[in-house]
Amino acid sequence: MKIKTALLSKVQGREKGATVIEYALIAALISVAAIAAFSFIGTSVKSTMSGIGSAMSSATPT
């Protein structure tokens, strides 16, 4: 009976380690996706603001 308990505790410890690694990989994947999305959105916002700025500078007050 003690052998079964010892084996069970070893297997549980390994599963906990695997779960931590899985969560770390998921967090890394989410981080990479967020960075890519923010980079794309940042470029889009930059071009929009540049267009607005040039339109405002070329506008003449009446």
Task: Describe the structure in brief.
With 62 residues, the protein is mainly α. The chain has one helix at residues 2-58.
Q: What can you tell me about this protein's structure?
A:
The protein has a domain at 1-31. The protein is built from 1 helix and no strands. Helices cover 92% and strands 0% of the residues. The chain is mostly helical.
Structural class: mainly alpha
Helix content range of the residues, please?
over 70%
Largest sheet: none
Cα Rg? 27 Å
Helical segment tally?
A: 1
Indicate the overall shape.
rod-shaped
End-to-end CA span: 93 Å
Total beta strand runs? 0
Structural key phrases:
62 residues, mainly alpha, 1 helix, 0% strand, rod-shaped
List the helices and strands and how they pair.
Blueprint lengths: L1 H57 L4
